[in-house]
Amino acid sequence: MSGCLCLAALGWLVGAPALKDTAPLTLVGHWECTSLTVNGEAGPPDKCVWEFARGGKLYRHYGEPPPLEHSYTVDPAKSPAHLDYTDRDGEDTIEAIYKVEGDTLTLCFSNLSSDDRPSRFESPARSKLRLLTFRRVRPKE
To answer: Angle at the Cα of 109 (from 116 to 47), degrees rounded to 5?
Structure first.
Protein backbone atom coordinates (compact mmCIF):
# COMPACT_ATOMS: atom_id res chain seq x y z
CA MET A 1 0.00 0.00 0.00
CA SER A 2 2.77 2.45 0.87
CA GLY A 3 4.41 1.70 -2.51
CA CYS A 4 1.27 2.92 -4.30
CA LEU A 5 1.21 6.06 -2.21
CA CYS A 6 4.86 6.72 -3.00
CA LEU A 7 4.27 6.27 -6.72
CA ALA A 8 1.22 8.53 -6.63
CA ALA A 9 3.17 11.19 -4.74
CA LEU A 10 6.09 10.89 -7.16
CA GLY A 11 3.72 11.28 -10.11
CA TRP A 12 2.24 14.40 -8.56
CA LEU A 13 5.66 15.88 -7.87
CA VAL A 14 7.01 15.37 -11.38
CA GLY A 15 3.78 16.38 -13.11
CA ALA A 16 2.92 12.96 -14.51
CA PRO A 17 -0.31 12.82 -16.51
CA ALA A 18 -3.45 12.05 -14.57
CA LEU A 19 -4.67 8.47 -14.73
CA LYS A 20 -7.61 9.51 -16.92
CA ASP A 21 -5.23 10.67 -19.67
CA THR A 22 -5.08 8.01 -22.33
CA ALA A 23 -2.73 9.55 -24.87
CA PRO A 24 0.91 8.57 -24.83
CA LEU A 25 3.05 11.68 -24.54
CA THR A 26 4.53 10.91 -27.97
CA LEU A 27 1.10 11.68 -29.49
CA VAL A 28 0.32 14.84 -27.50
CA GLY A 29 1.09 18.01 -29.45
CA HIS A 30 0.48 19.74 -32.77
CA TRP A 31 0.78 17.84 -36.06
CA GLU A 32 0.79 19.34 -39.57
CA CYS A 33 -0.35 17.18 -42.49
CA THR A 34 2.43 16.51 -45.03
CA SER A 35 0.75 13.90 -47.24
CA LEU A 36 -2.71 12.54 -47.93
CA THR A 37 -3.82 9.48 -49.90
CA VAL A 38 -7.51 8.72 -50.43
CA ASN A 39 -8.77 5.62 -52.26
CA GLY A 40 -5.26 4.95 -53.54
CA GLU A 41 -4.86 8.45 -55.00
CA ALA A 42 -2.30 10.91 -53.61
CA GLY A 43 -3.75 14.35 -53.11
CA PRO A 44 -2.63 17.66 -51.69
CA PRO A 45 -1.98 17.59 -47.94
CA ASP A 46 -4.90 18.51 -45.72
CA LYS A 47 -4.44 22.17 -44.73
CA CYS A 48 -5.11 21.45 -41.12
CA VAL A 49 -3.14 21.09 -37.90
CA TRP A 50 -4.31 18.34 -35.58
CA GLU A 51 -3.71 19.04 -31.89
CA PHE A 52 -3.87 16.07 -29.55
CA ALA A 53 -4.31 17.41 -26.02
CA ARG A 54 -4.02 15.51 -22.78
CA GLY A 55 -7.34 14.43 -21.36
CA GLY A 56 -8.76 13.11 -24.63
CA LYS A 57 -9.43 16.28 -26.63
CA LEU A 58 -8.52 16.60 -30.30
CA TYR A 59 -8.62 20.02 -31.98
CA ARG A 60 -8.40 20.37 -35.75
CA HIS A 61 -7.20 23.85 -36.70
CA TYR A 62 -8.14 25.11 -40.16
CA GLY A 63 -6.67 28.61 -39.83
CA GLU A 64 -9.51 30.72 -38.47
CA PRO A 65 -10.62 30.07 -34.89
CA PRO A 66 -12.36 28.26 -33.42
CA PRO A 67 -10.90 24.84 -34.19
CA LEU A 68 -13.12 21.79 -34.64
CA GLU A 69 -13.24 19.95 -31.31
CA HIS A 70 -13.40 16.17 -31.00
CA SER A 71 -12.95 13.61 -28.24
CA TYR A 72 -10.47 10.79 -28.72
CA THR A 73 -9.16 7.64 -27.06
CA VAL A 74 -6.17 5.49 -27.88
CA ASP A 75 -5.07 1.95 -27.24
CA PRO A 76 -1.31 1.85 -27.88
CA ALA A 77 -1.16 -1.80 -26.73
CA LYS A 78 -2.95 -2.94 -29.91
CA SER A 79 -0.93 -3.76 -33.01
CA PRO A 80 -1.24 -1.49 -34.87
CA ALA A 81 -2.18 1.03 -32.19
CA HIS A 82 -5.85 2.12 -32.17
CA LEU A 83 -7.12 5.70 -32.13
CA ASP A 84 -10.85 6.46 -32.04
CA TYR A 85 -12.25 9.98 -32.36
CA THR A 86 -15.68 11.52 -32.67
CA ASP A 87 -16.72 13.00 -36.00
CA ARG A 88 -17.49 16.70 -36.44
CA ASP A 89 -20.92 16.59 -34.86
CA GLY A 90 -19.82 14.22 -32.08
CA GLU A 91 -22.41 11.58 -32.96
CA ASP A 92 -20.25 8.95 -34.67
CA THR A 93 -16.85 7.50 -33.88
CA ILE A 94 -14.10 7.13 -36.47
CA GLU A 95 -11.95 4.04 -35.85
CA ALA A 96 -8.34 4.61 -36.91
CA ILE A 97 -4.90 3.12 -36.52
CA TYR A 98 -1.84 5.24 -35.80
CA LYS A 99 1.89 5.13 -35.32
CA VAL A 100 4.39 7.70 -34.10
CA GLU A 101 7.96 7.42 -35.31
CA GLY A 102 10.03 10.31 -33.99
CA ASP A 103 8.39 13.49 -35.32
CA THR A 104 6.20 11.62 -37.83
CA LEU A 105 2.60 10.59 -37.15
CA THR A 106 0.76 8.28 -39.55
CA LEU A 107 -3.03 7.79 -39.39
CA CYS A 108 -5.26 5.51 -41.43
CA PHE A 109 -9.06 5.53 -41.26
CA SER A 110 -12.28 5.57 -43.24
CA ASN A 111 -14.44 8.68 -43.20
CA LEU A 112 -17.45 6.40 -42.82
CA SER A 113 -18.05 5.51 -39.19
CA SER A 114 -19.86 2.37 -40.33
CA ASP A 115 -16.64 0.96 -41.85
CA ASP A 116 -14.32 -1.34 -39.94
CA ARG A 117 -11.02 -0.16 -38.54
CA PRO A 118 -8.20 -0.60 -41.09
CA SER A 119 -5.56 -3.18 -40.25
CA ARG A 120 -2.67 -1.78 -42.33
CA PHE A 121 -1.28 1.65 -43.17
CA GLU A 122 -2.45 1.75 -46.77
CA SER A 123 -5.18 3.27 -48.91
CA PRO A 124 -5.87 0.99 -51.88
CA ALA A 125 -8.12 2.06 -54.76
CA ARG A 126 -11.86 1.91 -53.97
CA SER A 127 -11.15 1.29 -50.28
CA LYS A 128 -12.64 4.52 -48.85
CA LEU A 129 -9.52 4.69 -46.65
CA ARG A 130 -7.58 7.86 -45.89
CA LEU A 131 -3.87 7.64 -45.15
CA LEU A 132 -2.40 10.79 -43.64
CA THR A 133 1.17 11.57 -42.64
CA PHE A 134 1.97 14.44 -40.29
CA ARG A 135 5.08 16.11 -38.96
CA ARG A 136 5.28 17.43 -35.43
CA VAL A 137 5.03 21.20 -35.15
CA ARG A 138 7.37 22.40 -32.42
CA PRO A 139 6.36 25.49 -30.43
CA LYS A 140 8.17 28.66 -31.44
CA GLU A 141 10.75 29.72 -28.88
So the answer is: 160
Low-confidence ranges of the chain (pLDDT < 70): 1-24, 88, 141
Q: What angle do CA 66, 18, 104 make, to 5 degrees?
A: 60
Domain total of the chain: 1
Does a structural domain hold residue 7? no
Give the bridge partners for 98, in sequence order: 81, 107
Report residue 107 CA to chain centroid gap.
7
Whether residue 13 is contained in a domain is answered as: no
Beta pairing, strands 81-86 & 93-101: antiparallel
Global model pTM greater than 0.85: no
- Show the beta-strand stretches assigned E in the chain: 29-38, 41-43, 49-53, 57-61, 68-75, 81-86, 93-101, 104-110, 129-137
Q: What is the pLDDT of residues 1-31, one digit of tens each?
A: 444 433 333 333 333 333 344 566 789 999 9
In a domain, 54, yes or no: yes
From CA 15, how far away is CA 9, in angstroms rounded?
A: 10
